[in-house]
TrEMBL record:
<protein>
    <submittedName>
        <fullName>FdtA/QdtA family cupin domain-containing protein</fullName>
    </submittedName>
</protein>
<dbReference type="InterPro" id="IPR008894">
    <property type="entry name" value="QdtA_cupin_dom"/>
</dbReference>
<dbReference type="Pfam" id="PF05523">
    <property type="entry name" value="FdtA"/>
</dbReference>
<dbReference type="InterPro" id="IPR014710">
    <property type="entry name" value="RmlC-like_jellyroll"/>
</dbReference>
<feature type="domain" description="Sugar 3,4-ketoisomerase QdtA cupin">
    <location>
        <begin position="6"/>
        <end position="132"/>
    </location>
</feature>
<dbReference type="InterPro" id="IPR011051">
    <property type="entry name" value="RmlC_Cupin_sf"/>
</dbReference>
Length: 138
């Protein structure tokens, strides 16, 4: 099975209330890992792309906490694009998936739940190196 086949939208709990809605996430309950780190991207200028890397071991869930953006995924064999625009949808990314985030709407916030603490050694930042290591030809 390709890592891209493991990518999926996770429906997060949504408590609807006339005063405003609430969504919550519990590690190993709503996402398939214990959450070790949380960070978010915001104030991304129009036309900018974020990501541009893959992870050796880290798993993530990306959530459009506000606004929208596209996630372009590549496992060396195929590419898929997901539009995230609902704060109660999370996009699960297993290890060994190249990702780029683009087309951020004004005011968008990308919330990221990560399975590991930050470790620069876990990153592939060069696409050709990533392709070679996973056994594909550039």
């Amino acid at each position: 099975m390709s890592p891209l086949d493991q990518v999926r939208i996770i429906q997060l709990p949504r408590v609807q209330d006339p005063r405003g809605n609430l969504t919550f996430v519990e590690g190993e309950q709503h996402v398939p890992f214990d959450i070790k780190r949380v960070y978010y991207l915001y104030d991304v200028p129009g036309g900018e792309t974020r990501g541009g890397h893959a992870h050796r071991d880290l798993e993530q869930v990306l959530i459009a906490a506000s606004g929208s953006f596209e996630v372009v995924l590549d496992d060396g064999r195929a590419r898929r694009t997901f539009l995230l625009n609902r704060p109660y949808h999370g996009l699960y990314l297993p290890r060994l998936i190249w990702r780029e985030l683009e087309n951020f709407s004004s005011g968008s916030v990308c919330l990221v739940l990560a399975s590991l603490r930050y470790d620069e050694a876990d990153y592939y930042r060069d696409y050709d190196e990533f392709i070679r290591d996973i056994g594909c030809q550039p």
